Amino acid sequence: MVSELDKYLFDLRGYLLLENALNNQEVEDLNACLEAIPLKKPGAWHGHVHSHVFASDNEGLNFQQIYEAGEPFEKLIDHPSWIDHSKLFVGGQESFDAQHGPLFIDENFASIRGPGEAIGLHSGPVPWVKRCQFLVRDQQFNCGQINILIALNDIGPGDGATMVIPGSHKSNFRHPEFDQAKMTMEGGSVDGVTGAIEVHMKAGDALLFVDAICHGSAKRVNSGERRITVYRYGPSWGFFRHGYRPSKELLKRLTPERRQIVWPHSKIKREISEDS
What we know:
Layout: H1 4-13, E1 15-18, H2 24-35, E2 45-46, E3 49-52, E4 61-64, H3 71-74, H4 83-90, E5 104-113, E6 136-137, E7 140-141, E8 146-151, E9 162-164, E10 197-198, E11 206-210, E12 215-217, E13 226-234, H5 248-253, H6 256-262
Antiparallel strand pairs: 1-11, 2-3, 3-4, 4-5, 5-13, 6-7, 8-11, 8-13, 9-10, 9-12
């Protein structure tokens, strides 16, 4: 259930911290799946999981299509800790927008970062982008994309925590520090950006945020790894951010509800008759 306080705080801040979204066993199972993936260079494949970087080697290594990595990651597709929040904040559940299903995951990945790695400040409502929009009309949410970022280990001070600028999803102006070289996607972080805060998380916590909020991460200075996974939800009429597609094997083993979110784009079959 989504509380009235959840709605108020999400509208106000652009994010929610869902504490204890996963239990200890779920976190353990997810980490075991990650351990089974060889740490390879970007571009390598492990089954249907792809090793990948967004823009710079300083951002750490991503594993795209992580729901292909095993049943523990499949469970996250419609996990009860956040699926109702995602439906409500994406919106359109009683409209034409949901004719093919409630939601669509256009990207899902796990991320591992070590010392010195971070990702720069990005996103925000200026310039306006459909995918990143935040809109409330008649007290109904209509957001282009809702991100669920799940901590797979504890992330505290010095661990490279996700950073957000609360309320920036409603800003009418571009952050004046946005373009400074140290904050670019080419290897900077969000450390020192006016208004940005670190969101510290325990393993199993989930950070829900609208993609319109300005966000990034602090640079990790501690030893060890920062491990997270991210699922991005939008309306069912959306499509994949990258060129990935779910495998036939995954679609075959998913529950009907999960398959509807992963692949809502069903094809109309033409019936051949004698007079066609």
